[in-house]
């Protein structure tokens, strides 16, 4: 069951009033109103407040439809050139006034402010709660604050540090702190505190609250992003050794409603279409524009992914040929039990993207109808995104024509932790153990492991990220080493396993290889442009009517000093004179 933290409108109004300067209001007191004098007294009050801090996870730049705009920046996604996601994001034409930039900053700081109120008021002398419960409440709030600050620091290369609640908004005008300070002064201490005071699990009715595993995983991730390999590996090892988490046998269970809060889930954002029904306009269901600071209980991400000829989506992003071809090369191990029915494509392909000549159904449609009609792939596409969509149901079952969805968004799952652990081990020089954890991911998917390849190829494994279509040759074989395993993690395993889960742009940024990745895609794309007449509609990709040109222009446009991090929002710079 989903953690019911909803019905927030009245509550949020109360909390937000508490956050205003009382001098701005009439001096008469409404004895029935919630005020700092009547609120923040007991477990119920703090539970209400925690609900609002969790609700900020639902904002559209955190886990909603605007995350697709960031996905558009990556090498895993293509955009139609007539669609705004191409001109704005693929070509780095967003500005400091762009809605994604301004909303991301504002939405994350709403989360910070809500957490700060809890952390501040839980210390009150007249709070009637057991000490252990106070620590648990504070630990939840500090985990959420750490997450919001981690996102701020890594998207904007820093943030304004504010760890106290202030009634007077003038106190919020502070100078910008560099990324390293945000991580060391806020994120790490918050998570260290949380690991000591959070439970390892909650009851089903409270599923969705952060746990010990959430805090430890985030702490390991913070160390990993800073290149502190030993510290990161130590935290990830705690998660692995805890035996709390396990990979789900069926990969696709991680992206549908039936598999929510499963054994692989470590940090998950709850969504529902049955509580606080959303508006039919996805731009408003989880947006802060116009003063709407209450996020929707329904996700708007599905609408960004689904095919325009079925669920009415706008296809903000579609899979790049790079991702498509790698998923085709996700080679099925026929001896694996999950492939007993004769599967020829991996779980990761069939549950991540839709490709031409697919088998099974997509929104209850088959590739070829009895009358011979085939399912249309629009324009120059070779695939569509399946993750976090209800592709295995019919259109008539979708609310608002697929504009909103009840599917939870998974921020961290165990597979991600295993791959981050493998990365840390490899950077420490232990590429042999790194392969062990990579192969846990591959074995679950029912594909050949790196060890399988090495056993059958004289101790070598293939570079699966090299295009066989472009080179006209089999994948080159490489011996295991720190460098070859690093390449595999960066350009094969994390892209395939975690595509369209919101990690890729952050990964490329932290590795410092955005330009390199885009240049690689540009080379392959140029080859396809030059050879369009011979490859359109042909295997292995069956690309549609033309080659969509994205990466040639994007790679040429990328400037690391300008585009690696987002600009500070224009409205924040205007209102906070101390920001610059």
Automatic annotation (TrEMBL):
Subcellular compartments: Cell outer membrane
Cited InterPro entries: SusD-like_N, SusD_RagB_dom, TPR-like_helical_dom_sf
Q: Where is the RagB/SusD domain?
A: 384-579
Q: Which UniProt keywords apply?
A: Cell outer membrane, Membrane, Signal
Q: Which residues form the SusD-like N-terminal domain?
A: 25-224
GO cellular component terms attached to this protein's record: cell outer membrane
Q: Which family does it belong to?
A: Belongs to the SusD family.
The protein depicted here goes by the name RagB/SusD family nutrient uptake outer membrane protein
Q: Which organism is it from?
A: Flammeovirga aprica JL-4
What are the leading ranks of the lineage? Bacteria, Pseudomonadati, Bacteroidota, Cytophagia, Cytophagales
